[in-house]
Amino acid sequence: MKRILITGAAGFLGSHLCDRFIAEGHHVIGMDNLITGDLKNLEHLMQLERFDFYHHDVTKFVHVPGKLDYILHFASPASPIDYLKIPIQTLKVGALGTHNLLGLAKEKNARFMIASTSEIYGDPLVHPQTEEYYGNVNTIGPRGVYDEAKRFQESITMAYHRFHGLDTRIVRIFNTYGPRMRLNDGRVIPAFMGQALRGEDLTVFGDGSQTRSFCYVDDEIEGIYRLLMSDYTLPMNIGNPNEITIKDFAEEIVKLTGTDQKIIYKPLPKDDPLQRQPDITKAKEILGWEPKVGREEGMRKTFEYFKTLSKHELQKTEH
Ligand code: NAD
Ligand code: UDP
């Protein structure tokens, strides 16, 4: 049995990772300060002997007693409205938090993985994005706090790998969706589904010609798991290359939810990337991984989840 520390455990991806490692028979220590996460994502694990929860801010010194085999650093605000609201914490969790956890990994001789992001490519001039592309990021723009924290996180991780010989993994995650996303976290899928459930119009930003490529959470977790278990130490894209414009996507959501909501247009946020699609050649060749869940099936499962939450979450937005 391995002992694994997962930061950001009460969040969307962190909680699914906890489930995966528990299902594999390991001991999981989840760590979170609950700044954007929610303990209800972990409540089904709390009674297990093989699960511990530490309420802790990883930008402060991190101490975990006993051995650790793997550390997965997934703590970070991840939605644009979150990191615009808490820009300093976003920079700190990527920079100071990563430094603290690298120190812990070195002390425990643990394999260390960071959750990097397609955002390190910024508003990309290369399409689809390969891992070799250096990116096009506005350092001082509103999204810069997230993008640069993640770029620093990659740099310091590679420095520990090269200088200290630490065993490291870097996953560049592209837009992922599924159950346990926060209904009002501002990302496009919960935003559209929340609007459909409340009977509001769907807000497309800009003219809706910008593209994204959405990956269902089960596929993403499988890719992350395989990368962690591989011996590949350079950054790897994990995402679904099926690209769609946000306007077409809004139309799909109207069809899926069976509502007759109108689509309305709002200004495009500053530095919103115009196109995004992962090149997953490396993941296919090295991990034998590719996504299996199509958008229709994934969106249906996600909508079912939001429907079960809707009353509670909709009440919350009224206060
Ligand atoms: P999320 O907001 O649901 O989860 C992040 C978790 O980190 C939350 O539970 C939050 O409370 C916790 N956290 C934040 N700062 C912390 C701190 N200082 N100390 C301890 N805990 C802290 O977001 P998510 O979508 O699950 O994203 C998880 C990770 O994956 C993030 O690092 C994000 O950058 C990365 N990522 C996600 C996506 C995606 O599409 N979901 C895409 C690219 C990268
Ligand atoms: N978006 C939108 N309406 C919304 C929320 C988001 O049109 O209510 C757009 C947003 O401008 C972006 C895309 O949807 O072009 C994806 O946004 P999200 O915040 O989900 O992720 P990211 O921009 O980080 O990829």
Automatic annotation (TrEMBL):
It comes from the Bacteria. GO terms for cellular component: cytoplasm. Its EC number is 4.1.1.35. It is found in: Golgi apparatus, Golgi stack membrane. GO terms for molecular function: NAD+ binding; UDP-glucuronate decarboxylase activity. Residues 5-302 form the NAD(P)-binding domain. Pfam families: GDP_Man_Dehyd. GO terms for biological process: D-xylose metabolic process; UDP-D-xylose biosynthetic process. Keywords: Decarboxylase, Glycoprotein, Golgi apparatus, Lyase, Membrane, NAD, Signal-anchor, Transmembrane, Transmembrane helix. It is a single-pass type II membrane protein. Pathway: Nucleotide-sugar biosynthesis; UDP-alpha-D-xylose biosynthesis; UDP-alpha-D-xylose from UDP-alpha-D-glucuronate: step 1/1. Its cofactor is NAD(+). It is an enzyme of class 4 (lyase). Belongs to the NAD(P)-dependent epimerase/dehydratase family. UDP-glucuronic acid decarboxylase subfamily. This is UDP-glucuronate decarboxylase. It comes from Flagellimonas flava.
